[in-house]
């Protein structure tokens, strides 16, 4: 029910309870068509906008500052009908992020997302870079006493 998704017709079709997998879909509607009658590129781009940061927030919790940093899209084929994108986080990737940010450093993991049509053809490929940093107050061990 997030307004940018609601008004474009983007739907989160599946989100695993552990936040490790997500599937987002978009049907071609009159309000998300371009002048050629295919999916408006902005809607294809928006399909991936908050997904990885939100998944990482769900996995890593409030002790991390997480937001989008950069993104680009490569349109490969006109999108017609229903299109979807799948997002996945692995335990290895999560460990990589935790290790890279353990001392308070920022980390900029990149994710590649394919937007695929009903035939399984790739319509667009997106690259998203996410900003992740362990918050300074959250790195302190509450069980240690000040010396």
Written overview of the protein:
There is one protein chain. This protein has 147 residues and is of the alpha+beta class. The protein contains 5 helices and 7 strands, in the order αββααββαβββα. The chain has helices spanning 3-6, 41-46, 51-60, 91-101, 136-139; strands spanning 10-15, 21-26, 64-75, 83-88, 106-107, 110-117, 122-134. Strands 1, 2, 3, 4, 5, 6 and 7 form a 7-stranded antiparallel sheet that branches. It is elongated and about 50 Å long. The mean pLDDT is 89.
Structural class: alpha+beta
Number of strands: 7
**In one word, what is the shape?**
elongated
Q: Outline the low-pLDDT stretches.
A: none
Helicity level? 10-25%
Characteristic terms for this protein:
alpha+beta, 7 strands, 5 helices
Topology of helices and strands:
Blueprint lengths: L2 H4 L3 E6 L5 E6 L14 H6 L4 H10 L3 E12 L7 E6 L2 H11 L4 E2 L2 E8 L4 E13 L1 H4 L8
Antiparallel strand pairs: 1-2, 2-4, 3-7, 4-6, 5-7, 6-7
Summarize the structure.
With 147 residues, this protein is of the alpha+beta class. Helix content is 24%, strand content 36%.
């Amino acid at each position: 029910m997030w307004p940018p998704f609601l008004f474009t017709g983007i739907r989160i079709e599946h989100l695993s309870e552990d936040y490790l997998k997500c599937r987002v879909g978009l049907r071609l509607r009159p309000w998300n068509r371009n002048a050629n009658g295919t999916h408006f590129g902005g809607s294809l781009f928006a399909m991936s906008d908050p997904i990885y940061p939100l998944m990482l927030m769900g996995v890593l919790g409030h002790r991390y500052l997480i937001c989008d940093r950069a993104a680009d899209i490569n349109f490969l084929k006109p999108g017609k009908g229903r299109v979807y994108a799948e997002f996945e986080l692995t335990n290895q990737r999560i460990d990589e992020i935790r290790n890279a940010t353990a001392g308070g450093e920022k980390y900029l993991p990149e994710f590649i997302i394919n937007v695929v049509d009903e035939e399984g053809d790739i319509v667009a490929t997106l690259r998203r870079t996410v900003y992740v940093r362990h918050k300074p107050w959250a790195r302190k061990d509450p069980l240690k006493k000040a010396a």
